[in-house]
Amino acid sequence: MKLRSFVGFVLLILVSCSKKNGTTSVIWISGFKTTCESGAGASNCLLINKSNELANEEWELFYSDIEGFEFQEGYLKKVEILRQKPNDNKRAPMDKSISKYVLVKELEKRQDHRPSLVAHWQLEGIHGTSIDKKITPPTLDFNLSEMKIHGNGGCNRYDGTIKQLGIKSIAFGNVLNTLSICAEVNVEGQYLGSLDKISSYEVNDSILNLYDGQENVIMSFVSHRKTDNRTKIHDIWSAVRIAGSPTKGMVPVPHLEINTTEMKIYGNNGCNDYFGTLTNLTENSISFGKIGSTRKMCPEMEVPKRYNEALLKTRTFRFDGQALIFSDEEGEEILTFMKTD
């Protein structure tokens, strides 16, 4: 204990002495880092706020290391730092300081809720109206490292930038989307057109609300984080039972590809190729939107018909060993799959 106290005393003296050769300042450090371009190339930089009590939402990149500072994702830290200027005339890259920064002391620590934005968000309501369960809901994913967003508007994929992300404020930059024409009813136009009206947000566990400048709720989302089941179901599956009857001997065997990133499905029902959307996917519930397909006539059409009907009746799923089992509203098994190697 005496040795530890002595070391701390020496460090305190060293910092106190070094202040004569530098200046101190108090800053807030963000609970997440972002990609930045420094003299050595791309790296992860701290974000800082120079407001004493986070009175403003102005965050800026901090390109240097802070000796003695421990970064913790998800936590805001208010710190006093010492800036020491070198004695020589060495020049640094334009985006990187040659000054040395040293932690004097940590003054305060708070939870930073912004990293909790990193989830797969599914739209629940827009402008006060709940999303119809029969349509494909828009999705929103945040990438704080690159300060970008992406998702599906209900028909097309889109990508955009995050211009500002404060403790409460948020603003999106230009959003670009693909230009597919979708026959299904959707709210894509309304959704994409509302993104540039957003000025603040509130995230509370699995709920995300986005507000306009008058603090009206514009959009509400529920999170579908990458759980074990949601990750596991993202694969290609071959049907082994339809309504309890084995598919053994069928050529071709019906199969299903589930893409949880795009909330899409593809496959073959034993005769025709099909494609559709996922309108709901949680840890154990799943449902599909309208399914389109080719229109070939095959010698045996009864099984493909039953397969299509079963897909549309699916409401829940579970895993039994390596088997993926779909059930209807009553919990009755209607389709069983095995992973395709």
Instruction: Name the CATH architecture of the largest domain.
Output: Beta Barrel
Q: What overall form do the CA principal axes indicate? A: elongated
Instruction: Report the C-alpha radius of gyration, rounded.
Output: 27 Å
Distance between the termini: 61 Å
The major sheet is characterized as: 10 strands, antiparallel
The tally of beta strands, per DSSP, is: 26
Helix proportion range? 10-25%
Low-confidence stretches: 1-17
Structure class: mainly beta
Listing every helix as H and every strand as E from the N terminus to the C terminus, the arrangement reads HEEEEEEEEEEEEEHEEEHEEEEEEEHEEE
Q: What do these coordinates show?
A:
This protein is mainly β and 341 residues long. It has 3 domains: 2-112, no CATH class; 115-223, Beta Barrel (Lipocalin), CATH 2.40.128.270; 228-339, Lipocalin (Beta Barrel), CATH 2.40.128.270. It contains 4 helices and 26 strands. Strands 17, 18, 19, 20, 21, 22, 23, 24, 25 and 26 form a 10-stranded antiparallel sheet that branches. Strands 8, 9, 10, 11, 12, 13, 14, 15 and 16 form a 9-stranded antiparallel sheet that branches. The radius of gyration is 27 Å and the shape is elongated.
Topology:
Layout: H1 2-18, E1 22-29, E2 34-38, E3 41-49, E4 60-62, E5 66-67, E6 75-84, E7 100-111, E8 120-126, E9 129-130, E10 139-143, E11 148-152, E12 157-165, E13 170-177, H2 188-194, E14 200-204, E15 207-211, E16 217-223, H3 228-233, E17 236-242, E18 245-246, E19 255-259, E20 264-268, E21 273-281, E22 286-288, E23 292-293, H4 302-313, E24 316-320, E25 323-327, E26 333-339
Parallel strand pairs: 5-7
Antiparallel strand pairs: 1-3, 1-6, 2-3, 3-4, 6-7, 8-9, 8-10, 8-16, 10-11, 11-12, 12-13, 14-15, 15-16, 17-18, 17-19, 17-26, 19-20, 20-21, 21-22, 21-23, 24-25, 25-26
